[in-house]
């Protein structure tokens, strides 16, 4: 339960301000929410222990940050407006100064420069920080990812230019996809006018703790072992890179990563040189994957890609590809107002729907039921599954044990060292194999059995409609026996965190629907046929 986790963290660190990222009008999701949902989410987050909200918008559209920033300040928390840094022919120093001024006019307590891809060069960092501090009396923070190898230098130059705070990560959880190491920066600044006063020995104790914690998640680590210069061209944030690797692995197409990285800048240009930060990073990345896997650019357009082309996410830095926009608008007009202005208040309806489902499924809502309502509102599928299984220990990861298990086996022959996920009788375990074959720290990775993919029934005679991606059926639109025209939406597939419409490639009659909502499908599975 994310709300419980927040309360527990605050209880453990009562004097330490807790900070979260908030995607403006998107909150934690991939769509815009009505203002009443934004207001209530912020209120509940503050009540549960959140102190600082770093509010950003993937389009750098200040209209999409205003409601969230105002809600944060109205509830007495710290509102930090964000510049989602990127480079393109449309982005200049003046772009960032103008956005800073707009955020200050909205009302913020501080400003953050968010370099999610690690593409902020040291000299650009010095110039940007210097110019903002010269013009505005505002606290300024810098957030850089270490993916390209420039982050440490960018932080140091920003400190020289007068930045007030920088983001780092404890060494055992730093670098590659993450941030520069805290200890390295502390040592770099020791004895200077910027000395942090932090104790290296205490930091090492923290690093040692997380070295052990990290081992448990080895199976989820990305492929990156050092710096990656491809990111300087593709501008892929660290989190997006691991997501892409995971997506391609799920599609049995891990060898296509370089092609996808080459396609990403082209998609980004088609979408108006938008910054690559959640959710636009996932949208651009997923569309690039679709373009590569289907073998034809924009043969399939994800629902969220269409949303950007329609203006549903806000202003783009420059106009989008006109032909693509005309294709998705289908004669309609693009959205030019603040997208959330088109949304009616939705909190009451969301609450009624969650209470109805809870009653139907026998779910006991939390004492503060609004927290459960918001969980389902922001994560419709997994949120409801969580509520259904909240009191079922078998559905969750085991609680940490006080002590690691003692060595449990000795290999007959020396084995390569490493950490492996092993499946035994339907249960997954994380196993550490030391040099020489010692096997230790055997822990359950999940107490739930690994489920096999749902079998897909064979469809009847006719032209098969197959799954272009592995994923889950979100919704079946067409009905058995229905006559459809070429281009009609037959069903919606949820794949790679996006909704992809599967359309009819030809006119025909729907026969042999082989799937239903919630079914898992693999690439090439027959979903239905058109006779």
Automatic annotation (TrEMBL):
The record lists the organism as Salmonella dublin
Source superkingdom? Bacteria
Q: How does it assemble?
A: Composed of three chains (alpha, beta, and gamma).
Q: Which reaction does it catalyse?
A: oxaloacetate + 2 Na(+)(in) + H(+) = pyruvate + 2 Na(+)(out) + CO2
Task: Report keywords, A-Z.
Answer: Biotin, Lyase
Which SUPFAM superfamilies did the record assign?
Aldolase, post-HMGL domain-like, Single hybrid motif
Q: Name one GO biological process term.
A: gluconeogenesis
GO MF annotations, alphabetized: decarboxylation-driven active transmembrane transporter activity; oxaloacetate decarboxylase activity; pyruvate carboxylase activity
Does the record bear S-adenosyl-L-methionine in its keywords? no
Entry keyword Disulfide bond: no
Principal EC category: translocase
This molecule's function is given as:
Catalyzes the decarboxylation of oxaloacetate coupled to Na(+) translocation.
Looking up Pfam families in the UniProt record yields: Biotin_lipoyl, HMGL-like, PYC_OADA
Q: What is this protein called?
A: Oxaloacetate decarboxylase alpha chain
Question: What EC number(s) does its UniProt record assign?
Answer: 7.2.4.2
């Amino acid at each position: 339960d994310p709300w419980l986790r927040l309360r527990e963290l605050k209880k453990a660190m009562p004097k330490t301000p807790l900070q979260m990222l908030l995607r403006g009008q998107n909150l934690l999701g991939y769509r815009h929410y009505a203002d009443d949902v934004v207001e209530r989410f912020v209120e509940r987050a503050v009540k549960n222990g959140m102190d600082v909200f770093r509010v950003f918008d993937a389009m750098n559209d200040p209209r999409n940050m205003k409601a969230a920033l105002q809600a944060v300040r109205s509830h007495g928390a710290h509102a930090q407006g964000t510049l989602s840094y990127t480079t393109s022919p449309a982005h200049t120093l003046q772009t960032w100064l103008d956005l800073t001024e707009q955020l200050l006019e909205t009302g913020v307590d501080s400003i953050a420069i968010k370099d999610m891809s690690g593409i902020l060069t040291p000299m650009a960092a010095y110039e940007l920080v210097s110019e903002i501090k010269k013009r505005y009396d505002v606290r300024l923070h810098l957030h850089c990812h270490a993916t390209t190898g420039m982050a440490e230098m960018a932080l140091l130059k920003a400190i020289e230019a007068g930045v007030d705070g920088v983001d780092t990560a404890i060494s055992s959880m730093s670098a590659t996809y993450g941030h520069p190491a805290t200890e390295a920066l502390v040592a770099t600044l020791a004895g200077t006018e910027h000395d942090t006063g932090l104790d290296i020995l205490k930091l090492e104790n923290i690093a040692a703790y997380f070295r052990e914690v990290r081992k448990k998640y080895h199976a989820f680590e990305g492929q990156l072992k050092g710096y990656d210069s491809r990111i300087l061209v593709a501008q892929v944030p660290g989190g997006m890179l691991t997501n892409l690797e995971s997506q391609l692995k799920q599609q049995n197409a891990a060898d296509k990563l370089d092609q996808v990285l080459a396609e990403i800048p082209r998609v980004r240009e088609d979408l108006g040189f938008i910054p690559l930060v959640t959710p636009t990073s996932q949208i651009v990345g997923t569309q690039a994957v679709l373009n590569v896997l289907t073998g034809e650019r924009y043969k399939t357009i994800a629902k969220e890609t269409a949303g950007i082309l329609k203006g549903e996410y806000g202003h783009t830095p420059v106009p989008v590809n006109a032909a693509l926009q005309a294709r998705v608008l289908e004669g309609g007009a693009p959205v030019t107002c603040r997208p959330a202005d088109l949304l009616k208040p939705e909190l009451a309806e969301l609450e009624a729907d969650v209470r109805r489902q809870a009653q139907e499924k026998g779910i006991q809502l939390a004492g503060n039921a609004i927290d459960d309502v918001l969980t389902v509102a922001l994560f419709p599928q997994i949120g409801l599954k969580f509520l259904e299984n909240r009191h079922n220990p078998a559905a969750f990861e085991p609680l940490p044990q006080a002590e690691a298990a003692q060595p449990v086996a000795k290999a007959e022959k020396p084995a390569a060292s490493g950490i492996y996920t092993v499946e035994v009788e339907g249960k997954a375990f994380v196993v550490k194999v030391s040099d020489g074959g010692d096997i230790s720290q055997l822990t359950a990775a999940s107490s739930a059995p690994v489920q096999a993919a749902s079998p897909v029934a064979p469809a009847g005679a006719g032209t098969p409609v197959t799954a272009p991606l592995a994923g889950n059926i979100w919704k079946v639109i067409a009905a058995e026996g229905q006559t459809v025209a070429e281009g009609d939406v037959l069903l919606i597939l949820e794949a790679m965190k996006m909704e992809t419409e599967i359309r009819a490639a030809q006119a025909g009659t729907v026969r042999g629907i082989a799937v239903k909502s919630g079914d898992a499908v693999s690439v090439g599975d027959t979903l239905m046929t058109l006779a």
